[in-house]
C-alpha cells in the first residue's frame, strides 16, 4: 500500500515538475491580467484616466443599449454555426484521405498542411484576390459554369458566407493532423473483424472509425468552437467589419472598443461575456459527450 | 572586521567611480515616432539628431521608431502606465484625448512668444488645439486636393482644362466619367467615400463647405443635426449611390499598381501627395496627363475645404526638461528640416516659408500641394472620444448610403450618440505651472 502511494506521489511530483514552466508562466503572465480584467469589467476605465467603479453598468449597457454588441455576437454565432461543422467534416475527410497507404503520402500530407503554416494576413490578402467580384478566380469559374456571381466581400449578404467559405482553406491544418493521429491509432484488427462480418465501407466508418476517434472529434469540436468565437484576422485585414457591420465579429469589436475607443473597462466586460459563452458551450459539449464519445479501455 | 572594512572600502570606491561617470553622462531625450521609412530614420540619426546634439552638447536624443500598426496600443499602454517618452507623435484627432489624459503639457507657454508661429499654415497649427489651448506642434501635413486625368476628360467630351470647382459639378462629371461593363466598374468616375469611417471623415469636411460645424467651440453643443448636416449627408449619399450603384462590383480592393495611377479612377477629390508619387513611380509617362484642381466648395458657398491629415509632436508630463524638448521640436520643424522630413516621407511641410526653398520648387508636387491645398485643410474636431463617436455615427451614415435609412434619420441618430457622450467627456487636465 505504502509502495503504491509513494509511486503515486513521485508520479504526481514529476507531473507537476513537467507542467511547472506552464504553471509558472500562467501565474506570472496570465492570472494577474485575468483577475485585473474581471475587476476592470466593473469600472469605466478610459485610457489613461483612473478606473471608476460602475458596478454592473458595463454589462447593463452591453445588453440593453449596445447595438454593435448584438450585431457582433450575431455575426460570430452565425459564423460558428457554419464554420465548425465545415471545419470538422472537412478536416476529417482530409485526414481519411491522408491516412491512405499511397506512394508519396508524406509529400501529400506536407502539401495539405502548408496553409496552416502560412501567415494569416497573407492568406487573407490572397483570399481578397480570389473573392474579388471583378477579377477573382472564384467568380470567373462561377461565370464559366453559368452560376450567379455574387459581390462577396462588397455585399453585406455575401460577406459572411465568403469568410466561411475561406475557412475551407484550413481544413488541412492542425485539426486534420489531430484526426490523422487518431485514425492511425484505430486498431486494424477492428476493421478486419468488421470485414469478416461483411461490413462495407460505410459501416466500418460509422461503427468502427467514428466511435474509436470520438474523443478526438470531441477535442476538435471544442477547439473549433473556441477558435471560431475568436475569429479576428479576416475582419481586421479583409473587411474592417464591413460592409454595413456584416463582418463585425465579436473579438474585432472588442479590439476596437479597447484600442480605438480606449474603453478598457467596457472591453473587459466584453471579454468576460465571451469567456462565459465559450465556457458554457464547452460545458454543454462535455456534458453531452457521454452520449456519443467512446473511450476505449 | 578587516573583511568588513575592505567591503566598505570597495563600496565607497564603486560609488565614487560610478558617480563620476554618471556626472559626465549626457541627459537623454526620448522620442517616439511612427511609420518612418528607413531613409527617414537614417536622416534623423545621421543629420537631425547630431544637429541637436551640437546645439545641446549635454543632451542626447534616443529615437524609437514604432510601426503604425502597433502605435496606438503602445501609446495607450504608455498612457496608462505613465511611461510616455519625453516627446511623441500623435495623429489628427488626438488633441482632445491627449489634453484630457493628464499626461501631456500644453505648449502655449513657449509658442505664445514664438514669432515663427505665423509661418505655419493656420490649418496645420489649429490641429493640436483643444479647448483654447495649444497641446502640440504640428510637423507635417498631408493635404488633399482634386486630381484628375486630362485625357480621360477629353475622351468623354469634358474640357481638360476645366476641372470641377464645386462638389455638385464633381458629381455631374463623375456620372459622365464612370464606366461600367456588365456588372463591374471598369473606371470610377470620381472617388467617393465608402464605409462608415470615410463617410464620417468626409461629412466633417462637406458640412464645413456649407458653413456648418460638428460641435460648438467649447464642445458642449452638437451642431450637425441642422440644415447644413442634412445637406452634407444628402450630397454624400447621392455621390455614393452614383459611383457605387447597387449590384455593381467596385474596383478591386487590392491592386499591384494603385488604381488612380492606372487611370482607373478618373477624378479624385481626396487626392494626397501619395497619388502623385504613385503616378511618378508606376506610370511616369502619364504625368503629363495629370490635372491639378483646387479643393471643392459647395454650390452657392465660398469656402473651399478638403480633408487634411496633420500630425503633431506632444511633450509628456514625464519630460524632465520641457525647455529642451521644445527646442528639439523647434529644430525639427525648422523650414529646412521640415522640408527634408516631408520629402523623405512624402508629406507636405507645415511652414509657408518652405515654399521659397529650392527643393520645394523643384519637387513635382510639394509646392503644388502647399499652394493648392495647404491653406484649405478642414477644421479638426477632436473630442476625447472622437474615434468611438465617429464609428457609432458613421454606421448610421453607411446605412443611409445603402438606402436602409433616410438621411434625416441617420443625422438624428448620429446626433443622439454625440449628444449623449459630449457632456460625459473628460475636461482637459492642465498640469500645475502651465
Walk me through the structure.
The complex is a heterodimer of chains A (297) and B (434). With 297 residues, chain A is mostly helical. Chain A folds into 2 domains: 1-40, no CATH class; 56-292, MetI-like (MetI-like fold, Orthogonal Bundle), CATH 1.10.3720. Helix content of chain A is 73%, strand content 1%. Chain A has 13 helices and 2 strands, in the order H-E-E-H-H-H-H-H-H-H-H-H-H-H-H. Chain A has helices at residues 2-40, 57-64, 67-98, 105-117, 120-130, 137-144, 156-166, 174-184, 188-196, 201-229, 233-239, 250-260, 264-292; strands at residues 43-44, 52-53. In chain A, strands 1-2 form a two-stranded antiparallel sheet. The radius of gyration of chain A is 23 Å and the shape is globular. Chain B has 2 domains: 25-141 and 309-370, 3-Layer(aba) Sandwich (D-Maltodextrin-Binding Protein, domain 2); 145-307 and 382-424, D-Maltodextrin-Binding Protein, domain 2. By secondary structure, chain B is of the alpha+beta class. Chain B has helices at 2-24, 38-55, 68-81, 95-101, 108-111, 122-126, 150-155, 167-177, 196-209, 227-243, 273-282, 322-332, 335-345, 358-362, 366-372, 386-401, 407-421; strands at residues 27-34, 59-66, 87-90, 129-130, 133-134, 137-143, 145-149, 179-181, 184-187, 267-271, 290-292, 308-315. In chain B, the strands form 4 sheets. Chain B has a 5-stranded mixed sheet with strand order 2-1-3-12-6. Chain B starts with a helix and ends in a 13-residue tail after the last helix. Classes of the chains: A mainly alpha (297), B alpha+beta (434). At the A-B interface, helix 5 and helix 12 of A face helix 3, helix 4 and helix 16 of B.
Amino acid at each position: 500500500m505504502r509502495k503504491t502511494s509513494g509511486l503515486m506521489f513521485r508520479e504526481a511530483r514529476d507531473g507537476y515538475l513537467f507542467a511547472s514552466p506552464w504553471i509558472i508562466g500562467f501565474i506570472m503572465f496570465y492570472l494577474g491580467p485575468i483577475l485585473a480584467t474581471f475587476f476592470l469589467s466593473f469600472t469605466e476605465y478610459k485610457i489613461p484616466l483612473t478606473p471608476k467603479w460602475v458596478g454592473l453598468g458595463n454589462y447593463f449597457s452591453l445588453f440593453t443599449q449596445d447595438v454593435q454588441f448584438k450585431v457582433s455576437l450575431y455575426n460570430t454565432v452565425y459564423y460558428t454555426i457554419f464554420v465548425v461543422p465545415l471545419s470538422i467534416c472537412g478536416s476529417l475527410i482530409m485526414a481519411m484521405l491522408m491516412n491512405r497507404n499511397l506512394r508519396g503520402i508524406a509529400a501529400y500530407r506536407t502539401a495539405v498542411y502548408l496553409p496552416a503554416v502560412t501567415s494569416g494576413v497573407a492568406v487573407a490578402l490572397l483570399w481578397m484576390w480570389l473573392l474579388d467580384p471583378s477579377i477573382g478566380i472564384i467568380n470567373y469559374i462561377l461565370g464559366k459554369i453559368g452560376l450567379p456571381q455574387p459581390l462577396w466581400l462588397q455585399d453585406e449578404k455575401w460577406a459572411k458566407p465568403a469568410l466561411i467559405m475561406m475557412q475551407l482553406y484550413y481544413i488541412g491544418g492542425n485539426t486534420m493532423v489531430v484526426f490523422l493521429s487518431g485514425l492511425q491509432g484505430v486498431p486494424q484488427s477492428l476493421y478486419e473483424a468488421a470485414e469478416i462480418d461483411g461490413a462495407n465501407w460505410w459501416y466500418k466508418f460509422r461503427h468502427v472509425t467514428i466511435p474509436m476517434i470520438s474523443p478526438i472529434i470531441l477535442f476538435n469540436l471544442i477547439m473549433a468552437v473556441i477558435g471560431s468565437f475568436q475569429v479576428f484576422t479576416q475582419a481586421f485585414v479583409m473587411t474592417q467589419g464591413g460592409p454595413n457591420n456584416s463582418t463585425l465579429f465579436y473579438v474585432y469589436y472588442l479590439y476596437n472598443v479597447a484600442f480605438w475607443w480606449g474603453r478598457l473597462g467596457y472591453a473587459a466586460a466584453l471579454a468576460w461575456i465571451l469567456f462565459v459563452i465559450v465556457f458554457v458551450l464547452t460545458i454543454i459539449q462535455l456534458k453531452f459527450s457521454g452520449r456519443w464519445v467512446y473511450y476505449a479501455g | 572586521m578587516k573583511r568588513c572594512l575592505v567591503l566598505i572600502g570597495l563600496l565607497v570606491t564603486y560609488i565614487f567611480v560610478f558617480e563620476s561617470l554618471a556626472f559626465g553622462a549626457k541627459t537623454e531625450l526620448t522620442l517616439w515616432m511612427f511609420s518612418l521609412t528607413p531613409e527617414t530614420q537614417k536622416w534623423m540619426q545621421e543629420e537631425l539628431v547630431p544637429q541637436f546634439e551640437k546645439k545641446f552638447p549635454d543632451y542626447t536624443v534616443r529615437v524609437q521608431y514604432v510601426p503604425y500598426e502597433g502605435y496606438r496600443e503602445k501609446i495607450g499602454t504608455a498612457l496608462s502606465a505613465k511611461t510616455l517618452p519625453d516627446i511623441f507623435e500623435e495623429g489628427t484627432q488626438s488633441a482632445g484625448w491627449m489634453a484630457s489624459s493628464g499626461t501631456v503639457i500644453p505648449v502655449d507657454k513657449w509658442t505664445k512668444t514664438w514669432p515663427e508661429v505665423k509661418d505655419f499654415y493656420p490649418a496645420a497649427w489649429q490641429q493640436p488645439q483643444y479647448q483654447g489651448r495649444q497641446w502640440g506642434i504640428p510637423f507635417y501635413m498631408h493635404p488633399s486636393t482634386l486630381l484628375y486625368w486630362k485625357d480621360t476628360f477629353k475622351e468623354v467630351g469634358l474640357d481638360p482644362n476645366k476641372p470641377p470647382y464645386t462638389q455638385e459639378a464633381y458629381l455631374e462629371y463623375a456620372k459622365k466619367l464612370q464606366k461600367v461593363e456588365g456588372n463591374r466598374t471598369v473606371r470610377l468616375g470620381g472617388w467617393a467615400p465608402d464605409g462608415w469611417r470615410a463617410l464620417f471623415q468626409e461629412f466633417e469636411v462637406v458640412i464645413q463647405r456649407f458653413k456648418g460645424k460638428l460641435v460648438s467651440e467649447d464642445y458642449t453643443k452638437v451642431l450637425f443635426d441642422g440644415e447644413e448636416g442634412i445637406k452634407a449627408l444628402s450630397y454624400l449619399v447621392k455621390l455614393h449611390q452614383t459611383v457605387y450603384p447597387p449590384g455593381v462590383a467596385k474596383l478591386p480592393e487590392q491592386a499591384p499598381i494603385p488604381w488612380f495611377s492606372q487611370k482607373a479612377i478618373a477624378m479624385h477629390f481626396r487626392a494626397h501627395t501619395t497619388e502623385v508619387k504613385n503616378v511618378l513611380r508606376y506610370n511616369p509617362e502619364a504625368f503629363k496627363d495629370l490635372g491639378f484642381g483646387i479643393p471643392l466648395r459647395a454650390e452657392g458657398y465660398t469656402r473651399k475645404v478638403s480633408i487634411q491629415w496633420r500630425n503633431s509632436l506632444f511633450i509628456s508630463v514625464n519630460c524632465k526638461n520641457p525647455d529642451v524638448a521644445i527646442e528639439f521640436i523647434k529644430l525639427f520643424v525648422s523650414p529646412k528640416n521640415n522640408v527634408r522630413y516631408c520629402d523623405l516621407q512624402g508629406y507636405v511641410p507645415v511652414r509657408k516659408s518652405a515654399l521659397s526653398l529650392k527643393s520645394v520648387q523643384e519637387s513635382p508636387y510639394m509646392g503644388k500641394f502647399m499652394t493648392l491645398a495647404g491653406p484649405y485643410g478642414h477644421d479638426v474636431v477632436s473630442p476625447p472620444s472622437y474615434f468611438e463617436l465617429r464609428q457609432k455615427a458613421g454606421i448610421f451614415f453607411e446605412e443611409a448610403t445603402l438606402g436602409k435609412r433616410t438621411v434625416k434619420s441617420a443625422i438624428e441618430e448620429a446626433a443622439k450618440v454625440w449628444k449623449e457622450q459630449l457632456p460625459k467627456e473628460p475636461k482637459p487636465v492642465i498640469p500645475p505651472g502651465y
